[in-house]
Amino acid sequence: MSYFVNESTNEPKFGKIISLSVAFVVIVILVFGSFGTVKAGEVGVRTTLGAVTGIEQPGFYLKLPFIQHMNKINVKTQTINYDRNGNEGDERDTSELAGASKDLQDVKIGVVVNYHINANTAEKIFVQYRSTENFELNVIEPIIRETVKSTSAQYTAEELVTKRAEYSDKVNISLIEKFATKDAVLERFSVTNFEFSPAFTQAIEAKVTAVQNAEAAKNKLEQIKFEAQQTIETAKASAEAIRISAQAINSQGGADYVNLKAVEKWDGRLPTQMIPGSAVPFVNLNK
């Protein structure tokens, strides 16, 4: 019996297996590379050999493998947080925007911005910036920094505190206009914090305390004046009452009228002890 195996007869079979495996992989790649989905909150930008050839809305799509690509642009709400707890700022390791007030006081401004890309211009943004991240880094963030800082320079440090709502409204209006020219939509802008130098903060606190004390003293003075006026008016009322009573008494007989009223109120009882030579109360025997 011979155990010799002709290896040459197995070579075609092995090569066929390799060819079939490669063909299967290619088919799988072609099949799965021919379709996909655009998620909600995204817009697909179709490119054919690098050139933009169409826009796909959220849902299922077909494409030519290796020739066409679907690039996703995020049009959901984005948040930029220039705040103490955020991770953006003038530099990536800081978290607030450093500006200056009209009276040249240094101020760190914390703000939060919500915006989204205009879905109708996603193709334009892709052509210019290739991604949402690049668009935000090169367009949106510089606009926010410039607007927040330039607007703060229109107010004194004290006004930034006392007119915070006005400052916020002014920045908000400016951002709406600037974002619109860059194919973005501002959803919400809010100022979260003003942080001044320790010396200025102490000066502001001292001024506020002084104003509060002055207002308290003013209120106290007004209270004293009011109470004094009440006393005067009460005294005037009492004096007027006495005057009216005296006038009424005189008009009705004077002393005789007083004695009459006393007799009317007397219960008729004599004192238990009489002082020698004294008269009966309310009775004048000399008349």
Note down, in words, how this protein is organized.
The chain is of the alpha+beta class. It has seven helices and nine strands; from the N terminus they run H-E-E-E-E-E-E-E-E-H-H-H-H-E-H-H. The strands form three sheets. Strands 6, 7, 8 and 9 form a four-stranded antiparallel beta sheet that branches. Strands 3-2-5 form a three-stranded antiparallel beta sheet, with helices on one face. Strands 1-4 form a two-stranded antiparallel sheet. The chain starts with 10 loop residues before the first helix and ends in a 22-residue tail after the last helix.
Task: Summarize the helices and strands and which ones pair or pack.
Elements: H1 11-32, E1 35-38, E2 42-48, E3 51-56, E4 59-62, E5 68-74, E6 78-82, E7 97-100, E8 106-117, H2 122-129, H3 132-152, H4 157-162, H5 164-180, E9 184-196, H6 198-251, H7 255-265
Antiparallel strand pairs: 1-4, 2-3, 2-5, 6-8, 7-8, 8-9
Helix pairs in contact: 3-5
